[in-house]
Amino acid sequence: MKLLDESVTNQLIENARTSPRLRAHHCFHPGPDSSVQRLAMAMQPGTYYRPHRHADPATWEMLMVLQGELAYLTFDDNGVLLSRTELKAGGPVHGVELPEGDWHGLVALAPDTVVFEFKEGPFKPVAEENFAAWAPFENSSEAVPMEQWYRTAQPGDRVPAL
Questions:
Q1: 105-132 burial, b for 16+ CB within 10 Å, e for fewer?
Q2: Arch. (CATH architecture) of 6-152
Q3: What is the pLDDT of residues 88-131, one digit of tens each?
Q4: I need a surface site. Which of 78, 101, 137, 140 has the fewest CB within 10 A?
């Protein structure tokens, strides 16, 4: 039996706090070939998720917020924000399933946010063509203002110019 208990959550949060990426994950599936990927992730405000899609292969994913708060963002092909869904542990919305192929990103709105993610396997890293060309690379100087834009962006807003 595998448990997602306080010790796992506390270790994830500590790992996210000290990670240069400000996030960490703990896998519950046995390996990358598993047909369903299951993982807990901790994230801190300031972590940047470059918008991407799961188009090759086309797969869905689902997030459930266990602690903290985040915004789940979807975009059109040109970087216009289509939707902003705020998820909060214990809140009226605390989970979201994204259909296959949609451009998406997320932003931590509270320290020590912890989510549980389910997605189709096997694991396949996102190919470069499935990262949004209109969004900065993860460790670039433009990533910081992009993550800050995420925090308040509303549907209809376009990502800042690179």
A1: bbbbbebbbbbbebbbeeeeeeeeebbb
A2: Sandwich (2.60)
A3: 999 999 999 988 889 999 999 999 999 999 988 878 777 788 88
A4: 78
